[in-house]
Amino acid sequence: MWFAIYLTGFVGSLVLALYFSIMARQRGIHPLVSRMTLGKMNMAIGVLFTLMALNQFTFEDLTGVRIGVALVLLLVGLVNLIFGTRNYIQYRRGWIMELKKNG
Fold first, then answer.
1. Please, are residues 87 and 53 in contact by the beta-carbon 8 Å criterion?
2. Rounded CA separation 30/52 (Å)
3. Which residue, of 27, 58, 64, 100, is most buried by count of CB atoms within 10 Å of its CB?
4. Could you report the average pLDDT of every consecutive run of 10 residues in the chain (103 residues)?
């Protein structure tokens, strides 16, 4: 059961991160929309790293190196998730204000 949830989350977040990365770098889109999309990409990468870290803790043979790698991945994943969410909300607010201002 855990493997199915992990694999689905891993593949889903990897696909979303690639999709948002490509979409944010399109020509002709508004800079605020691009930054919002990059925020979504950071959230997807944060979920990906967090899932990778949690997977390290499921192994029976927990060594110091495995725990260290898992903690680093967990830290990087949570930081990406938090800052990606913050950036998405910030730029979305700016995009909504600009839309109200223009029309």
1. no
2. 33
3. 58
4. 86 96 91 94 96 89 91 97 97 93 83
